[in-house]
Design goal:
Distance between the termini: 77 Å
Helix content: 25-40%
Order of helices and strands: HEHEEEEEEH
Low-confidence stretches: 1-20
CATH class: Alpha Beta
CATH architecture: 2-Layer Sandwich
Largest sheet: 7 strands, antiparallel
Number of strands: 7
Number of helices: 3
CATH topology: Alpha-D-Glucose-1,6-Bisphosphate, Chain A, domain 4
């Protein structure tokens, strides 16, 4: 009987973990070709401490921990609707024109979010910007709340990436 109780307690402790692990990994990858040199586009996106300079959904960006553009820096994004997102820089590689970060907390319907943004030069002097991310939906239960499902998480991140990339193209190609 004692073994059954212990096994039951162990199983009960694993149920939340199992539900979390059961939420599928989701991926979004968006890209845009920009009629501008990669160095010029990188100059616009490379400041981890100023996403608001090129993403229209972001009202302000503030570094609240660490040093800007250094691994471990934490920024708080205040969105146009005053929602906030806290993100941590995981890698910053200016020679490769890329950086990676994760969301620590925020209003988006995602969890376990990790993202990379890369600016690539093309042979014709233009650039391609690729923004990709992996994540899970925030509500990892078997029956997520309305607005918290896989499609909601994927659609939200797709809209974030497209909105930013479209605006980056616009401001990079304006002379």
């Amino acid at each position: 009987m004692k073994k059954i109780v212990i096994a039951g307690l162990m199983f009960a402790g694993l149920v939340p973990f199992a539900a979390q692990a059961g939420a599928p990994n989701l991926t979004v990858k968006e890209s845009v070709e920009i009629n501008a040199k990669a160095d010029d586009v990188w100059a616009k996106v490379s400041n981890f401490g100023d996403l608001s300079a090129w993403h229209p959904a972001v009202k302000t960006t503030e570094i609240v921990k660490g040093t800007n553009n250094k691994k471990g820096a934490v920024r708080v994004l205040t969105l146009q609707d005053n929602g906030t997102i806290k993100e941590e820089l995981e890698a910053y590689k200016p020679a490769k024109k890329s950086f990676s970060y994760k969301i620590i907390e925020g209003v988006l319907p995602v969890s376990h979010y990790h993202s990379t943004l890369v600016v690539q030069a093309t042979a014709d002097g233009k650039s391609t910007v690729v923004w990709s991310g992996t994540f899970k939906r925030k509500d990892t239960s078997d029956a997520p709340a309305q607005g918290q499902g896989d499609a909601d998480a994927t659609n939200t991140i797709t809209a974030v990436y497209k909105g930013g990339l479209d605006n980056l193209k616009k401001i990079s190609e304006t002379h």
